[in-house]
Write a structure and sequence with these properties.
This protein is mostly helical and 218 residues long. It is built from 7 helices and no strands.
Length: 218
Amino acid sequence: MTIATTLAVLGSLLPFCTAPVLAEDAKAAAPAGQTNPKKAALLKELCTLLAPGKSAESTMLAAFAEQEKQTPEIIDAIISQRAPKDATPEKIAEVKKAMVETQLKVLRRTHELFSKQIDMNGLCMSIYTTVYDKYFTEPQLKQLIAFYKSSAGKRLVEVQPQIATEAIRMTNKEIEGKIMSISQQVAQEMAGKAAEKSQEAPTTAPSAPATAPAPEQK
């Protein structure tokens, strides 16, 4: 699991926080652990409507699938930049194949263990209940619930995973080439600095210190 994937999953849930809220600015929320039963019920209802765990799981699946799809292209770009000039096409193809197979195994095993060891639904329900409790008052929660019960709100929840997946794909497409270019620039800058240091270093070994003359034997 990469940081990008994790951020993508969390980012897929952010639009839920941007639904229309018409009430005035929220007053200070009650300290943690002091939510009244009425508000707790509203928080539970809202999170049930949002189903953040389901959305996160769908987005996670899409993110893994997108990673698998892009792995050959990414490795191909890396090998093309770093392969020795005297490497034969056959050797380069062999290395690419091995790297792709290894990376795909890592991704698939990561996904397998992630699905078994992390309860996304329970985790998201707990987190989002706490977050919404902090930032929304009871009147605002009621307005959010009304929105997500509307046809527009239901549609937003329904298509949110697809929206997140398309946004991730489009973002990757836009920045992939720039990231590779930046990586090349950094590598060239570091190589240049290393060359400068090597030129500044002394080219001859320092002469050995003069030895004191041996005492005369009497």
